[in-house]
Design a protein that fits this description.
759 residues, alpha+beta, Penicillin binding protein transpeptidase fold, 5-stranded mixed beta sheet, 32 helices, 13% strand
């Protein structure tokens, strides 16, 4: 009797335990189904996958230059694909694909009993093509220790909904157009183009088996990195096809005796990556505002929207190609100058970069830094990008960091100075080297490109282009005895030699520029810069005269518009309008407002003439004499301390182009000024690009235009000798000290200076 009671007691406990497990399981499933762990795609949303339309970005001439998709892949119709490709996929990934409804219960039970109960690790997986598709489409989220069961359950629910919406053939098409392959490639068409330089429609049996074989582990079976391993995996695929009688033994044997062959595509990447990313974010910000305000649901990646931009696709292409060509040239010179003591091999430079890497962050959680460094020093087969293509190498993670650190970067921005429209936007050299958008995020010292702002401020304070200032070097006692130096020693041979403002700007003389700032006044110049739309903080120090000012490229472009336009645009424009696929305008950019130019027309034209002289006879003369450009062009070069940054701003009647060349890591600069100066590192990007525009009749209205208002009165105000020696009495009575306080002149000294000037 007592034994029966005991049995009943344990039976009740067992039943309660089973019931509890069932309740927990049902509750767990229900919570996922009801969206407590994130909204699941409905059948309607899944049905829209085949209805989504790519949104288009069009330039100012209505030319489409970029598209954005929900499934950002190169698609191909399943009807164009060879049957042996589909058979290879099914035989390897989901042999019962046509028999289940998204979840293969039989395969799951096999995995459960063989792997978990029998300990047979060769039993395979229970995932189906539809389950993989659900994962590829919607990804996985981190739910800590519950991540696997939650994500798997979500995928199972979505997989069954996919099966309810699509035919098996449609599922295969969506899967093959979205699945990730080796080499960071998505979709069978892109993978085929990358590894075999042909359309997926033309894949042979062996080639199809190679690509399908990579799906098990994209990196491990990459046919470029690991050809032997990839060939073995190809043979596994062929064996599976033979097992399910999809090919004959003769066909299988013919493939398996072949050595692995690929025809790797080496197409260079497009720099439009930076422009496209910026446009997507700007457009999405506008759509978010419209959706919130008007209770709409416009989706950039699904609704086939038409985004009208200010970009000129032709200029964009010209800038991208010339920037890349020029950087390729100076990159080799940059590396050769560092034949020894390469900065990218300095641990003080590469270690901080390594510590920011994902590999380091993952390992440091459980290891000491010494152990991590040892692990990341191990060499393996990988790919290095050389600026044009990927090369297979045997290298460590540390080697990879050092390799990427040796590359220079560049950026180029072109605007219409009158409207503020952005015409071209190249945020970096190559996204394979760096995805950092320099135009969007960076602030750097702008070097001598800031000097025209100082000189313009001085004109506003009453100085004239033909006023003279000494090039003698002076130490400023009230600024820690700071002593600016001229770039050339010849400028200090004669302590009584003076340079006109026109000549000093033309030759970019540092000592004279500081004295020009002293005459203009530091605060006056800061206030003047703000009126030119410079929003960055400018430290009130004399070094600002030499460009020790951290600014963004966009600010510099707007500031220079003040030398061309009567009024200054308040901001730069990129997106003009957004329309639906049927033409309904849902957004139109507000009219750009302008501000009064802080320079009156006469002084503005004087500055413009001075900047023209920089191009004709000064630091920018390569434009005239090396590149032979005789059009209406003004400009200014710039080089920062220790040759960290090279700048050039090109100015024409309807076009301003700002170029920067340097390194993302500010601890790395050019070894010599000969290569690092803006006239060599940055100017050629403008010169070569503008020369190409000149030769294109489409841009005649822009390149043949003249600067309006540059008449004889303006030119006459600049008609003076470049240099002038002090008169006899000034040499006799002038202060010969080499040190003074900055901005310490008293009224009596100003009168004395005026008196001495008559001699």
């Amino acid at each position: 009797m007592s034994k029966n009671k005991t049995k009943i007691k344990y039976l009740k406990i067992a039943l309660r335990f089973i019931l509890l497990i069932a309740i927990v399981f049902i509750g767990f499933f229900a919570s996922i189904y009801l969206g407590l762990f994130g909204k699941l795609a409905s059948e309607k949303e899944l049905a829209d996958l085949n209805q989504v339309q790519a949104s288009k970005f069009i330039d100012r001439n209505d030319q489409t230059f970029a598209k954005i998709y929900e499934l950002n892949r190169e698609a191909i119709s399943i009807d164009a694909l060879p049957q042996h490709l589909l058979d290879a996929l099914i035989a390897t990934e989901d042999a019962r694909f046509y028999e289940h409804s998204g979840i293969d219960t039989r395969s799951l039970m096999r995995v459960l009993f063989k792997t978990i109960l029998a300990g047979d690790k060769s039993s395979g997986g229970g995932s189906t093509i539809t389950l993989q598709l659900a994962k590829n489409l919607f990804g996985r989220k981190d739910y800590a220790f519950l991540s696997l069961p939650i994500n798997k359950t979500k995928e199972a629910i979505v997989a069954q909904r996919i099966e309810a919406v699509y035919t098996k053939r449609e599922i295969l098409e969506i899967y093959l157009n979205t699945v990730p392959f080796s080499g960071n490639t998505y979709g069978i068409e892109s993978a085929s183009q990358k590894f075999f330089n042909k359309s997926a429609a033309d894949l042979q049996l062996s080639e199809a088996a190679i690509l399908v074989g990579t799906l098990k582990a994209n990196h491990s079976y990459n046919p470029r990195l690991f050809p032997e391993r990839s060939q073995l995996r190809r043979d596994v695929v062929i064996t599976q096809m033979l097992k399910y009688e999809m090919i004959s033994k003769q066909e299988a044997d013919a493939v398996m005796v072949e050595s692995l062959k690929i025809d790797y595509s080496k197409n260079p990447s497009k720099n439009s990556y930076y422009l496209k990313e910026y446009l997507v974010d700007q457009t999405q910000e506008i759509l978010d505002s419209i959706n919130a305000k008007d209770n709409e649901d416009f989706q950039l990646k699904k609704d086939g929207l038409i985004v009208k931009t200010t970009i000129d696709a032709g200029i964009q292409d010209i800038l991208e190609s010339n920037l890349k060509e020029h950087l390729k040239k100076i990159q080799s010179q940059f590396e050769s100058q560092y034949a020894s003591n390469k900065p990218w091999e300095n641990p003080e430079i590469w270690k901080p970069e390594l510590r920011r890497s994902k590999a380091y962050q993952k390992l440091i959680k459980n290891k000491s830094e010494d152990e991590v460094l040892k692990e990341l020093s191990k060499k393996r087969k990988t790919e290095f990008y050389d600026g044009e293509q990927y090369q297979v190498v045997t290298a460590s993670t540390i080697d990879s960091i050092q390799h990427h650190l040796k590359f220079l970067n560049a950026a180029s921005l072109s605007i219409d100075p009158h409207s503020g429209d952005i015409l071209a936007y190249v945020g970096g050299l190559d996204q394979n080297l760096s995805q950092y958008d320099f135009i969007r995020y960076a602030k750097r010292q702008v070097g001598s490109t800031f000097k025209p702002i100082v000189y313009a401020s001085a004109l506003n304070q009453g100085l004239e282009p033909c006023d003279y200032l000494s090039a003698k070097e002076i130490s400023y006692k009230n600024y820690d005895n700071w002593k600016p130096k001229n770039a050339s020693k010849k400028d200090e041979i004669d302590p009584h030699l003076n340079y006109s403002l026109k000549s000093a700007l033309t030759q970019s003389l540092n000592v004279v520029s500081v004295k020009v700032l002293e005459e203009a006044g530091i605060q006056n110049t800061i206030d003047f810069a703000k009126k030119l739309k410079i929003k960055s903080v400018i430290k009130p120090e004399p070094s600002m005269a030499l460009g020790a000012v951290n600014m963004n490229i966009k600010e510099l472009a707007l500031a220079y518009s003040g030398f061309v336009a009567d009024e200054i645009p308040n901001k730069l424009n990129l997106i003009k309008s957004i329309s639906t696929i049927d033409g309904k305008v849902i957004y139109e950019a507000p009219k750009t407002h302008h501000s009064e130019n802080p320079l009156d027309e006469f002084k503005r034209l004087q500055m413009l003439a001075m900047l023209q002289n920089v191009v004709k006879a000064g630091t920018g003369r390569a434009i005239t004499y090396t590149y032979g450009l005789r059009q209406a062009i003004a400009g200014k070069t710039g080089t920062t301390q220790d040759n960290k940054d090279g700048w050039f701003v090109g100015v024409t009647p309807h076009y301003i182009n700002v170029n920067w060349v340097g390194h993302n890591n500010q601890k790395i600069g050019f070894k010599t000024t000969r290569l690092g100066q803006g006239a060599v590192s940055a100017l050629p990007i403008f010169a070569k690009s503008y020369a190409e525009m000149i030769n294109n009749s489409e841009y005649n209205a822009m390149t043949r235009a003249k600067f309006k208002g540059l008449n004889q009165n303006i030119l006459k105000s600049l008609a003076c000798e470049d240099t002038k020696r002090d008169g006899f009495f000034k040499r006799l009575f002038s202060n010969k000290k080499d040190e003074k306080e900055f901005e310490s002149k008293k009224e009596e000294e100003k009168k004395k200076k005026k008196f001495l000037g008559i001699f």
